User: What shape does this take?
Amino acid sequence: MPTENPRLDDEAVLKFVVRGYHLVHPDLPAKLNERVYSACSALAENPGNGIYTAVPALREVYEHPSVQGSLASLLGTDYRMNAHRHLHTTPAHYLHSQNWHQDSTNVRHHQIQTVLAMYYPQEVTPESGPTVILPASHFRNAPTDRMASYANIRGQLFLNVPAGTVAIVHYDIWHAGTLNRSDNPRHMLKFLFDRRSEPLTPSWNHNPNLSSDAVQNRIMEMAGPPIGYCSDFYKEWQLRRNMWDWLCGKRKNLAPGGFKELLGQDAESEQKENTV
Ligand SMILES: O=C(O)CCC(=O)C(=O)O
Ligand SMILES: [Fe+2]
Assistant: This one.
């Protein structure tokens, strides 16, 4: 991986910590998106993980400096592409949306270990099957069968994006494919990228003079579905802060469910109160 790639700044990384997504608009060579779109449309069958070799032009997307710079900022400079890759096609006039879901099995964590990088080789409009995401849902674990009964959620964001957009989202973000009313298939290339090492220092363009208050203001942003304060928020602020501190190299990793560690002091004093 070339080391010269534009890194995210503090603001962009903090936004990712809070909202769980970052949109990249790489200046890809003219016609590249069209080439990828045509190649995907011409496939006789979905090659699964083989999509990267079946459509070699994808290299130009995932090796673009602004894509690499964003991935390095979020995952460390030694990140790697996961073997799982997939072409998601929503055929023309396919009138079914997916259920809200988090990908893979229901074991979540509170760091940035894996991201999805979803590349759209064509413009996506409300008619042509945008992916819908729920910003700030990546800290919230939800059983898939329960999520099947969720429909429109306050704060949901349809990724209506120009051709060539790469949406980098936290692996645990709630999302779904939506119906395609248009006359053309909608293609989306979903690639996974993994962190390989614990952060020791910020891997983005970090301002060492950024004040702790400025960070905390961002951390306490009201983002996502709730419109009022509830106790979840207090936990979530800690999780966000922990994620930020960890990215800065200041904290150890938390195991799945390890947020109890963060809240340990509260739990201890509560217990004491209960035993008096
Ligand atoms: O097609 C999309 O927009 C999303 C697909 C997806 O999330 C999935 O199949 O897991
Ligand atoms: Fe998915």
About this structure: The beta strands are 21-24, 80-90, 114-120, 131-134, 157-158, 165-170, 174-177, 186-194.
